[in-house]
Every structure is written in structure tokens, then in C-alpha cells.
Design a protein that fits this description.
- The structure holds two protein chains of two kinds.
- Chain A is an alpha+beta fold.
- Among the domains of chain A are: 33-220, no CATH class; 310-490, no CATH class.
- Helices cover 44% and strands 24% of the residues of chain A.
- Chain B is mostly helical.
- Chain B has helices at residues 3-14, 23-31, 33-48, 61-99, 101-105, 127-158, 173-218.
- Among the domains of chain B are: 3-51, no CATH class; 60-104 and 143-151.
- The chains are: A alpha+beta, B mainly alpha.
- At the A-B interface, α3, α4, α5, α6 and α7 of A face α4, α5, α6 and α7 of B.
Chain lengths: 584, 219
């Protein structure tokens, strides 16, 4: 009985040990199993790469895009019809058929089975003064290793039929194949589903070395960098390694003299603070995103740039004034002293003196103040906005608003009053200049609205109907608009929790294509009359052109540019929102 | 001779002809006070012209020409940038369409199952070259398609650009320009320095793009 218990206990212990060993094995093998097709390729790219372009999951993106409502709409749209009917499209189809006949595979199989998982294009620039020593490399991770092998075999046949001869070569016991000689050499190395191709044999040797030596368990350095840049989930991303260009930039700085040397030295300081740059494209369900990320070492970033892009980054307060249905709006915050300091860094002392003198002569004289006292009060908020004419308005043109925050300054230096007086004087001189040279008269009027004095110009001959350029001081902003009515109707929406503090994503520009469509449809008749007069066309022709333009706008709803800032990253992103989703 | 004939004679004289003195003209002058006055005015004018100062170019003509040339160059650069930006945007949309172009052109046929073994091998020795040629032609067809689609879309949008919206006149814009041109020149020089500094990166990027676009199809 005791022996039996002992036996059972031993078996249990053995089981535990085996299970633990299994767990350890699985745990240790885990990363290897989890290495994505993209990372399998990035493992083969040496760290000193200059440019690395990565495309991943083309199969998945292409299939979901082809099934999307947007694709159906694009197919049926006039643009889709025009693209299908174009002679270039016929040429593309002929090429597709040609490839199908020669390589005996079609585009869909090529896309899904060969290119569908991951493709990496890597480029190593030549050293300083030797641009021809550059190296390029293409890497493919096929979903179907057999399909890849068959395609290579077929390609070899074509090369042989063309008179080229292949040479089997070895590097560290790994075999690869080369065609041609000298500059026309083309080498490839295949290991299962992975194919590496290059015109440069030494680039292929490095791939082979990395394939044999580098760990298949650890995440490649480039993949980690992509993750840190936030581009690891992108359909396509181009990563630039700034360090590769350091020697050449240092060489340029050493050679340059005078003002150019000064500029290059400053540029090198900024450049050395950069860790990586990436450009990416993402296909989301509702948006196509194109962006650029700059990863910098905040500690090494010179003060002005750190102040502008890292510290105290907020959305402009003007977004509360610009309605969501604005045809176009752009707004931001610029720290004027920091911007001036940043620009000064690129200009030698003599140049700075020239600028200071010009600014004092132009703006300083107008404001009767030292610009160094005025500058800190200008900004940081600025913005421009275009709105469709309000309902019931018979005007043709959109309403325009430009706004700039101007801080009031102090008792001895009331910057707001100084700026307004300068603008008033400017307005009066403009009226005098115009009226002394023209038979018609330009008037400069004042309107009081809710304790806001709005100054505006009127002249029916000079300005189109509905346009009466106006300016005013309202809510701490200097506002210039296309008419006094626009300034009267400008209201801030209530502050949200996000207003006034740092948020994740900050809007910079918004273009509402949907609202442009509505505006153009509502005013089609008046706009056609305007176009007909402007371009000396029959009104029907003008209307037809307008309708064609509207058809092109049906595909998209919105374009946005936004920015994200963190101590290490600065991201600018362009987001294109189609009228229909990009995925089902 | 009547007044009209005499006026013609005067105009010929002013145009540089030397019409002969005629007895008819002298007789007409003797009896017509208006033509006598005209004759006298023309004589005074002819005597005064040699003493006139030769016309001087306006004070700012040189600067105006330089400004116009620079503005034209800027406009061309902006046009080029606009064209490249629009080509890039169109390229993204069209690449997306091209990625699934079999769907665009013959949609339900997603996967064409063809047995490799059933295709007889061609003995054509120029296959390799013609494959390259076909790919090159396809590349330029794609580029043409991008630029034509973009140009078409831009052309349609151009109809809406207002051609005659006036702004309030700027007081002495030329004087302002002369005040601003030295700092603008300083900034331009700084900009030139920055682009010189970034030239190695731009040049490498161009070489990389060429490598990707030209050499990859040949692989």
C-alpha cells in the first residue's frame, strides 16, 4: 500500500515536473511562435538601415476593402467609371494578363499567397561621398511557401530562356542564386516562405548571417521601434533612421563657412535630438489615415522647440468658436516668443539685426512700441474659418473669419488698444488712397453690437455682394471677417472638459466635404451664374461643370489634420473620411 | 485744300514724313485761323521736343521686375508642390483600388484557380525582356492614370475659384515691399541653409525611391 502510494506520489511528481518543463518550453518558445510574418522579415534587416518600408497584411486589408461599401460606391461613381474606361487601365489589364501567362499566376494569388503577409524594402545609403555604394534589399514573407517556390522556378525558366545563366553560390553553408554580372547582378536567397532579393551580393550575405545567427525568439529592434512610434499596426510604414545621416551632416557642417555654417550647426543640433522618423498609412473602418511621427529625445531638443511641441500643448480655444459644420477651419496655438527664438537660432546676428530693424520700421512704427514688448501679447491662439452662407441669405460666397488672440498687455503697454488704433489708421489710409484714385467711394463705417465696435468697409463696385470686410476686438481676439454680420454671430460654445488642457489628439485643420456638397447644391443656381460670368460660359455649361465637380465630392465626407504630442513623440496625421465605410 | 487735307498733312509731319511745302497749304493757312493755330502749336511742339528729358524708368521698376520674377518662381514652386500633393493623395486612393484591381475590373473573379501544369511553357527567348517591358509600360500607365485623374479633379474644382474678388487697397504697397525685402532675403538664406543641410537625406530618399521603383520591377 505504501509502495503504491509512493508510486502514485512519484508519478504525480513526474507529471508536475513534465508539466512545468512543458510550460517553460512553451513560455520560452512563445515569442518564436508569436513572431509575426512582418517581424520574421525585420529580423533579417541590419540595424544600420537608412530607410525601411514595411507593408503588412495586404491580403486582409485588400479583401476587407474590396467588400466595403466605399468600394461599391467608388466602383459606381463617375471617377470609377472614368478610371475603368481609361486607356491606361487597358494597359494595366494587358500587363496583368501577360504576367498571368508568363508566371502562371494571377494578381489575386500573387497578392494573397506571395505578397499578402509582409513585404519589406530596405535601403542603406552609401557612406559620405560614396553614394554609389548604397545597398537595397527586398524581403517577402509568403503565406504559401510552395506558391513562392513555384513562382521562383517559373521566373528562373524565363530568365534562362532569355539567355541568362544562374550561378548557385554559398555563404556560411547557406545556398543562394545569382544572375548576371557586375552592376546587373541579381541575387536571391530563399528559406521556406522567406525570400530575400538584392542587386548587391554583400547585402544578401548580411541577410544570410542574420538568418543563421539572430534570435527567432526576440522581437527585432526595428519592430520594437515601430511599436514605440505607434506605426506597428499600419498597413504601410516607412521608418527613417536619422543616425545613418549623421556623418554626412557633420561633414557638411565642418566644411561650411559664414551664415551657411551657422544654419547647418543649428540644424545639426536639432537633427541629433531626433531618434526616428516614420511615415505611415492606416486603413481604419471609417478613415484612411496618413501620418508622420517624429520621435525625439526631449532632453536633447533645444528649448524653443521643446516649448512649442512638448510643453503645454493644447487645442486652440478657437475650436469653440468654429462650428462643426464649417466648410473649412484651421486653428492652432503658437508661442510667438518661442517661435521667434526658434527662427533666430537659424539666423546669424547680422541677419537678426536686419530683421529687427525691418520689424521696427514696419510694425514698430505703426504700433509706436518696441516689438519685444508687443510680441509676447500676440497669440497663442490663431485660426481661419469658412462657413456656408446662413439660411435665408442670398449671398453666393462663403463667410470668412480670421482670428488672432491678442492679450491686453498692461496699463503702460495696452497692446490690444495699440493694435486696434494701428488697424483703424490703416483703414483710414486705405480709404483715402482708394478714394483719391477712383470715381466710386470706399466707406469705412463703425457698428456697435453688444459693446463690440465693428469697423467695416463698404463699396458695391469693389466688393461682391455680401462682402464687407470687417474687423473687431471680441472676447480677446482680433477678428477679421468677410462682413460685420459674421462677427456679430460669432459665439463660443460652452467649454468642455477638454478645453484648455492637454488632450490626446489636437485638431489642426478640418475640411468638411459633406458641408461643401450641401453648400454647392443649395447655391448651385447662383454659383452657376457666377461661374458663367467669370469664365464667359453659357450658364448650362457652368452648371454642368459644377455638377461634375459635385459628383467627385460624393465619395468623401471629411478631411482632418490633427497632432499628438508627448515628451518623446510628435505626430501629424491626415485623416480622410469617406462617405461610406472602408470595411463592412 | 480744305481743313481735313491740312490736318492729314500735319499728322504726316508729326509721324516723321517731310511733306513738301505746297502753295495750296499756304493758301489754306492764310484764310483759316484754326489751322493757323494748329500749325503754330505743332511748330512749338517740334521746337520743344529736343529739350525734353528722356523718359526715366519708374523708381521701383527694377524692384518690381525682381518681385514679379520671384513671385512667378514661387507660384511655379507652389504649383509643383500642389501637383505632387494631389498626385500623392490620388496615388493613395488609386493604389488602394489597384491593390484590388481585379475586383474593380472583373469583380466576382477573386481567385482564378489555374493549374500551373496545364500551361505549356513558351520557348520565346525574349520573354524576360518583354516581361520587363510590360512592367515598365504598366508603371507608366499607372503614373499617367494618377496624374490624369488628379488633373481632372483639380480642373473641375478650378471653376469655383473666384477670379475677381477685390481686396481693400494697401497703402503704398511698394514701400512696404522695400521695407520687408531685406528680412525676407535673410529668411530665404536661412531656408536655403536648412535645405542644404537636409540635402543628403533628400538625395538618399530620392535614390531609395528610384531603387524601389526602378529596380524592384526588374527583380
Amino acid at each position: 500500500m505504501v509502495r503504491c502510494d509512493l508510486f502514485q506520489s512519484s508519478v504525480r511528481s513526474l507529471n508536475r515536473i513534465l508539466f512545468a518543463t512543458f510550460l517553460v518550453a512553451v513560455f520560452r518558445a512563445g515569442p518564436a511562435l508569436a513572431l509575426s510574418p512582418r517581424d520574421e522579415l525585420l529580423r533579417l534587416v541590419a540595424d544600420d538601415v537608412g530607410f525601411c518600408f514595411v507593408v503588412q497584411d495586404l491580403r486582409g486589408y485588400a479583401e476587407s476593402f474590396l467588400d466595403s461599401p466605399f468600394f461599391d460606391q467608388l466602383n459606381a461613381s463617375p471617377i470609377g467609371l472614368a478610371v475603368r474606361a481609361a486607356p491606361e487601365t487597358r494597359k494595366l489589364m494587358e500587363t496583368a494578363e501577360f504576367i498571368q501567362n508568363k508566371l502562371q499566376t494571377d494578381w489575386v494569388r500573387l497578392r494573397n499567397d506571395i505578397l499578402g503577409d509582409a513585404v519589406v524594402l530596405a535601403f542603406w545609403p552609401g557612406p559620405a561621398g560614396k553614394p554609389d555604394s548604397e545597398q537595397g534589399l527586398a524581403l517577402i514573407r509568403a503565406a504559401d511557401a510552395q506558391a513562392l517556390a513555384t513562382m521562383i522556378h517559373r521566373f528562373q525558366d524565363i530568365q534562362q530562356q532569355g539567355g541568362a545563366t544562374a550561378a548557385r553560390r554559398k555563404h556560411n553553408a547557406a545556398e543562394y542564386t545569382c544572375w548576371g554580372e557586375g552592376k546587373h547582378t541579381l541575387c536571391y536567397y530563399r528559406n521556406g516562405p522567406i525570400l530575400a532579393v538584392s542587386h548587391n551580393e554583400s547585402a544578401l550575405h548580411r541577410v544570410i548571417d542574420l538568418d543563421l545567427q539572430s534570435s527567432t525568439k526576440e522581437e527585432p529592434r526595428l519592430a520594437t521601434q515601430m511599436k514605440r512610434l505607434g506605426v506597428d499596426k499600419s498597413l504601410a510604414a516607412l521608418v527613417v533612421n536619422p543616425r545613418v545621416f549623421d556623418p554626412e551632416m557633420e561633414h557638411k557642417v565642418a566644411q561650411a563657412r559664414g551664415p551657411e555654417g551657422y544654419v547647418l550647426k543649428t540644424l545639426l543640433t536639432y537633427w541629433k535630438a531626433l531618434n526616428a522618423i516614420a511615415v505611415f498609412g492606416r486603413l481604419q473602418k471609417t478613415d484612411l489615415e496618413l501620418g508622420m511621427v517624429i520621435q525625439a529625445d526631449a532632453e536633447r531638443l533645444p528649448g524653443p522647440l521643446r516649448k512649442m511641441f512638448v510643453k503645454d500643448v493644447q487645442a486652440s480655444d478657437l475650436w469653440r468658436y468654429f462650428p462643426d459644420n464649417a466648410l473649412f477651419a484651421v486653428a492652432g496655438r503658437v508661442d510667438s516668443p518661442a517661435l521667434a527664438e526658434f527662427l533666430s537660432g537659424f539666423i546669424p546676428e547680422e541677419g537678426r539685426k536686419v530683421i529687427r530693424e525691418a520689424v521696427d520700421r514696419a510694425a514698430g512704427a505703426a504700433f509706436d512700441k518696441d516689438m519685444e514688448k508687443v510680441l509676447p501679447c500676440i497669440g497663442p491662439d490663431w485660426g481661419i474659418c469658412a462657413l456656408g452662407p446662413p439660411p435665408g441669405d442670398t449671398g453666393v460666397f462663403p463667410q470668412l473669419i480670421a482670428a488672432l488672440r491678442i492679450l491686453p498687455g498692461d496699463k503702460n503697454n495696452p497692446v490690444d488698444q495699440i493694435v486696434l488704433s494701428a488697424l483703424n489708421a490703416f483703414g483710414m489710409v486705405a480709404v483715402y488712397t482708394y478714394n483719391s484714385g477712383h470715381p466710386d467711394q470706399l466707406s469705412f463705417k463703425t457698428l456697435d453690437h453688444e459693446n463690440v465696435k465693428i469697423k467695416y468697409f463698404t463699396n458695391e463696385k469693389l466688393f461682391p455682394r455680401g462682402i464687407e470686410p470687417a474687423f473687431a476686438w471680441k472676447d480677446g481676439f482680433l477678428i477679421v471677417a468677410s462682413s460685420p454680420a459674421v462677427i456679430q454671430s460669432l459665439r463660443a460654445s460652452p467649454a468642455t472638459a477638454d478645453s484648455g488642457r492637454s488632450i490626446v489628439e489636437i485638431p489642426v485643420m478640418r475640411l468638411s466635404i459633406r458641408d461643401w456638397r450641401n453648400y454647392l447644391k443649395d447655391r448651385a443656381d447662383s454659383l452657376a451664374a457666377f461661374i458663367a460670368e467669370k469664365d464667359q460660359l453659357p450658364k448650362d455649361e457652368a452648371l454642368r461643370r459644377l455638377t461634375d465637380f459635385l459628383a467627385g465630392l460624393e465619395l468623401f465626407d471629411r478631411v482632418e489634420i490633427s497632432q499628438r504630442s508627448s515628451p518623446e513623440h510628435f505626430t501629424m496625421m491626415l485623416r480622410l473620411r469617406p462617405a461610406k465605410p472602408l470595411q463592412k | 485744300m480744305n481743313c481735313l487735307e491740312f490736318h492729314n498733312l500735319v499728322h504726316r509731319r508729326l509721324d516723321g514724313d517731310k511733306p513738301p511745302q505746297s502753295a495750296d497749304a499756304a493758301a489754306h493757312l492764310a484764310q483759316c485761323p484754326q489751322c493757323r493755330a494748329l500749325q503754330s502749336a505743332v511748330s512749338r511742339l517740334e521746337n520743344a521736343i529736343p529739350f525734353l528729358r528722356p523718359p526715366q524708368p519708374p523708381r521701383y521698376l527694377g524692384k518690381q521686375i525682381v518681385a514679379k520674377v520671384l513671385a512667378r518662381r514661387r507660384q511655379m514652386v507652389q504649383q509643383r508642390i500642389r501637383r505632387w500633393v494631389s498626385v500623392a493623395v490620388a496615388a493613395v486612393v488609386l493604389i488602394a483600388a489597384f491593390a484590388g484591381y481585379s475586383g474593380v475590373f472583373h469583380r466576382p473573379q477573386r481567385v482564378v484557380e489555374k493549374s500551373i501544369a496545364t500551361h505549356p511553357r513558351s520557348a520565346d527567348e525574349t520573354q524576360s525582356a518583354s516581361l520587363q517591358k510590360n512592367l515598365d509600360e504598366a508603371g507608366s500607365a499607372l503614373a499617367n492614370l494618377f496624374s490624369r485623374t488628379t488633373e481632372g479633379a483639380l480642373e473641375q474644382g478650378r471653376v469655383l475659384l473666384p477670379g475677381a474678388v477685390s481686396l481693400p487697397p494697401l497703402p503704398d504697397a511698394l514701400a512696404m515691399r522695400s521695407t520687408l525685402s531685406p528680412p525676407v532675403e535673410t529668411l530665404r538664406m536661412a531656408g536655403h541653409g536648412v535645405s542644404t543641410g537636409l540635402e543628403p537625406i533628400a538625395s538618399s530618399a530620392r535614390r531609395a525611391v528610384n531603387w524601389f521603383l526602378q529596380d524592384i520591377p526588374g527583380l
